[in-house]
Amino acid sequence: MKRFPFIAAIFFFIYLGCKQSPGPLPILGESEIVDGDTIFHQIPDFSYLDQYGQRFTQDSVRSKVYVSDFFFTKCPTICPKMAQQLLRIHQQFEHNPDFRILSHSIDPKYDTTEALKKYADKLGVGDSRTWHFLSVPKNEISAIAGKYLAAVQQDSTLEEGFTHTGHFLLIDQERRIRSFCDGTKSEEVDRLMKEISLLLDEKKPH
Amino acid sequence: MYRKLVLFGLMFILMSACKPSTSGGISTTELASLHTELMALHDSTMVKHGVSLKLIDQLDQIKLSQPEGSLDSIRDELDRSNEAMMDWMAEYTDPVTQDSSALNYLMDQLRLMKAIAQTQATAISGGKTILETKK
């Protein structure tokens, strides 16, 4: 009888040892081998104006984890749902200096700096330094959306139209796509939030 | 007699509750279904907006290697249909009333959206044909 706690302790440690901790998130998108090294799909350099009229570039997200989406302020259907879900993400991570949200507007004609600021104010994030609303020039929308949504298109039966899909993309510190979800579904966004925490805990690149 | 009156009253209340509500002679169900149809058409047109943008990029690539005037007209057509979509969204507002003016407004908007969707479909089809021939 005296041995019972000892045996129980042994089983407990075996259980802990066998329990699998969640592994690192996969790196999505097509990769290629160059000179023996794997080159992963990466978001290219960019330069857009944000809601403050300031230039926002790849350097603004250097060594940061970020969530990216595509929207337009006048969208009456899926964008308001996506904005509500992004607000949840913002609420949870807004004080983390290593995290950002990049919402790309696909309507440069109407989504001026002023319109984006007004939209951010309406959402209650007008002064946020975490959530940036970016105006993408018309001739760059297709290319940049294609780069972000490459992983989604690779993994699903998504139609060719990609700017109105409601997806959130999770990007790591080296601008690689690590996960995505349907930004209109709260249960999927719950999962993405756990993955954001995982990614923030991953070792930062040197 | 009293029982009959109560029964009649109950039936009247039940019938009133089951009847679709109307406002100014307009059925709210009719308004809601028109609104749903309009938004569904908006969503499908916006999905194709992405297709259209991609086609413009591809046509521009072809134009770099084979400068041709014929590409310009289809490119402009694609561009115009994209602009029309964005202009429609900037102008559109959900009706606040539920009367005949709301019904007329939604019907007008649906007509406009159908025309935009048609123009877009024609432009996309034209763009795809050109891409096929240039392959």
What does this structure look like?
- The complex is a heterodimer of chains A (206) and B (135).
- Chain A has helices at 4-18, 78-93, 113-123, 138-148, 150-155, 186-201; strands at 32-34, 37-39, 47-49, 55-57, 65-71, 99-105, 131-135, 167-171, 177-182.
- By secondary structure, chain A is of the alpha/beta class.
- Chain A has one domain (5-10, 46-203): Glutaredoxin.
- Chain A is globular and about 75 Å long.
- Chain B has 135 residues and is an all-alpha fold.
- Helices cover 84% and strands 3% of the residues of chain B.
- Chain B contains four helices and two strands.
- Chain B has a two-stranded antiparallel sheet.
- Classes of the chains: A alpha/beta (206), B mainly alpha (135).
- Chains A and B meet through α4 of A and α2 and α3 of B.
Key terms:
heterodimer, A: alpha/beta, Glutaredoxin, 5-stranded mixed β-sheet, 6 helices, B: 135 residues, mainly alpha, two-stranded antiparallel ribbon, 84% helix
Shape of chain B: rod-shaped
The topology string of helices and strands of chain B comes to HEEHHH
pLDDT below 50 for ≥5 consecutive residues: which ranges of chain A?
A: none
* Biggest pleated sheet of chain A: 5 strands, mixed
Largest interface: A-B, 23 and 20 residues
Overall domain count of chain A: 1
Task: Present the secondary structure layout.
The complex is a heterodimer of chains A (206) and B (135).
Chain A (H helix, E strand, L loop, with lengths): L3 H15 L13 E3 L2 E3 L7 E3 L5 E3 L7 E7 L6 H16 L5 E7 L7 H11 L7 E5 L2 H11 L1 H6 L11 E5 L5 E6 L3 H16 L5
Parallel strand pairs in A: 5-6, 6-7
Antiparallel strand pairs in A: 1-2, 3-4, 5-8, 8-9
Chain B lengths: L1 H17 L3 E2 L2 E2 H38 L3 H23 L8 H35 L1
Antiparallel strand pairs in B: 1-2
Helix pairs in contact in B: 2-3, 2-4, 3-4
